[in-house]
Amino acid sequence: MRISDNLTLARCLEQNQDIIFVFSMTKSLKRAGHFRRKFMSDCFNSFKSELEDRGFTVLATEYCFPDFISTFFQTRTFNSIYCTQEYSWEERQEELLVQEFCKKNDISLQSFDQGTLIAHNDLPFSLENMPFVFTDFRKKIELELNIKPIIPAPFSHVQNLGMMRLNHYIWKTHAVQTYKESRNGMLRFDDSTKLSPWLNAGLLSPRTVYHELKKYENEVCENDSTYWLFFELLWRDYFKFFSLKYGHRIFMTKGLSSSYYSHQNDTKNFEAWCTGKTSDSFINACMNELNQTGWMSNRGRQNVASFLIHDLGINWTWGASYFEEKLFDYDPDLNWGNWLYLSGRGSDPRARKFNTIKQAEIYDPQGEYRQFWRSPNEYP
Ligand code: FAD
Fold it and tell me: How many whole angstroms separate alpha carbon 236 and alpha carbon 333?
């Protein structure tokens, strides 16, 4: 849903005259709660008006794309489909169905890989040989860094909200200069970039963030913080390619491990976690923020996930599914990848257990966050 750095859009416009844009629901979007649906719908409506202003037809459908396309084909002939590749298993199954449909009906299908910083084909290793652990992945990437330039916008366009947020964070406030120190903050809007919703909805490409960062480093300041934002974008790529490699396994309770996984299906404790009614006021505040806004900071996500998995002993996939419904920046690869990682059944065999009491002391020393998001009758 962007005009700039969008290879799918650029190629489609270069090669065709009569184009219809289709936005279809993924199965995951059907599972989304109020916040993500609203966010996606707002993003879509603004992209739609931008295209309609240029005279294009834009359709939105509640059907998944393979279902939509086979019905649509009965009423209208077309010879090509252009789409953007996804990384996670369920979305890739849909893409396979579209491939089959195109083959059967002699339609050309062009699908572009543009959701990551480094495209799949530009990785310095094959997917089979992708390093298992993040640090090895990062080191190999950094050794032969190959980030392509941005694809220019095919026509002039209004700056979207994702670009506005990036400009605010980098150029207007220079908050990027202190990103490394502030990124674990939980209460202030500029503590971290808040770019994830825009990146995941596709309004902003990670490459755009990278090139703006480089420009800032060349023209204004280069320090540990500017590097750290790039470092976090590599985590994003890592989880995307991890998901591409391991497919449906990252969604399974046992994860990538064959060892026994002891957990309880304790619905009462799970309900308490979901609704911010556990014995831990820090966890409750995080869950209250999530339930009321669709957002939680990275520090909060790590703590509530650790609490669910290691303190309550509940199946990690329950927590990941709850996040899928609630987070408005939900991304299948990043969400399930991070949960799996924290459960110790992914690429880090050491289960990541956080001492949530200590974490609250470090990251919310004055209790401001807990006070702001407190549950009724809790925390003075
Ligand atoms: P910043 O700190 O400003 O980071 C900049 C960008 O780097 C982020 O927008 C994101 O794209 C990337 N990034 C940062 N941290 C991570 C990380 N741990 N893993 C991968 N990429 C990262 N992120 C999502 O976008 N969608 C999710 O559904 C999601 N679920 C998560 C679930 C759990 C249990 C955990 C621990 C993390 C999850 N994350 C998810 C990663 C991270 O929490 C968010 O990307 C981050 O909090 C978004 O805020 P920001 O854009 O201000 O991040």
Answer: 9
